[in-house]
TrEMBL record:
Residues 228-252 are annotated as: Disordered. It is found in: Membrane. Residues 236-252 have a biased composition (Low complexity). It comes from the Eukaryota. Residues 9-131 form the MARVEL domain. Keywords: Membrane, Transmembrane, Transmembrane helix. The chain crosses the membrane at residues 12-34, 40-64, 71-91, 111-139. This is MARVEL domain-containing protein. The keyword Ribosomal protein does not apply.
Length: 252
């Protein structure tokens, strides 16, 4: 079951996609009959919005396993906010009121009027998503980890509005390559702290010893050195090992 940030992110992104697709369809339908600069501007704004939503809604989950650099989200949120604000503003600046006698024709005039409503709704949705992202994700990230952390991959819930604080260590997929990754050192600390005798996990040259949660250094897929040493010493000191040594000695 989705928590609060997940549910809000899903709702906002789905509504933004619906509004952008409707705006795209209306502006494309109008442009098919009449070339109007204001409508073409709305068409371009809606195409950029749909493309961005495809990035956060499909590309990031599929290829980056919900990881994305924060600076991309920041730039695209601000860009869509500005484009949609200006798109419905230019429509409102020359808004027809009498469609039956309008030179565009009644149907095109009604399409033009409808574009204003959906443009405003889409802009309001982006206002919320941009505000939530900056206030709850971007600013805390910069404050805690520094300015340059935004150029690294950060774990997000679906939709890339809220940071996922419980991602921990997980497999990241990138164009068919499977890469172990963690957003920062705290994730690795959580993995070490939660090992407690679990089978060893080796990531990027760091091994977490399964015996007693002892950490060691080793190559990917190979046990950590400290973990192996600890396990060997415990096995050598066990009663069964001592009995086997005594039996072998007496035999000779």
């Amino acid at each position: 079951m989705a928590n609060g940030p997940q549910a809000a992110s899903i709702a906002l992104r789905v509504l933004e996609l619906i509004m952008s697709i409707i705006l795209l369809g209306l502006s494309a339908g109008f442009t098919a009959d009449i070339r109007e600069a204001r409508v073409i501007y709305n068409l371009v704004a809606s195409v950029i919005s749909v493309t961005y939503l495809g990035y956060v809604g499909a590309f990031v989950p599929i290829f980056f396993n919900y990881n994305s650099p924060s600076w991309i989200i920041l730039i695209m949120e601000i860009l869509n906010f500005v484009l949609l604000l200006s798109s419905w503003a230019v429509v409102a600046s020359d808004f027809p009121t009498d469609c039956p006698t309008n030179s565009w024709g009644k149907q095109n005039c009604q399409i033009y009027q409808t574009m204003l409503a959906f443009g405003i709704m889409d802009w309001l949705l982006y206002t919320f998503s941009m505000s939530f992202f900056i206030g709850y994700s971007y600013v805390p990230e910069i404050r805690e980890y520094g300015f340059f952390h935004q150029f690294r991959f950060t774990d997000y819930y679906w939709g890339c509005i809220f940071v996922d604080p419980h991602s921990g260590l997980r497999l990241r997929h990138c164009f068919g390559w499977r890469i172990f990754d963690w957003s920062d050192g705290k994730d690795m600390e959580r993995v070490v702290a939660n090992s407690h005798g679990q089978p060893e996990i080796n990531v990027g040259g760091v091994g977490v010893g399964g015996a007693g949660g002892v950490a060691g250094v080793g190559s990917v897929g190979a046990p950590g050195a400290a973990g192996v040493k600890s396990a060997d010493s415990q096995q050598a000191n066990s009663p069964a090992s001592k009995a086997a040594v005594t039996a072998a000695t007496s035999t000779h």
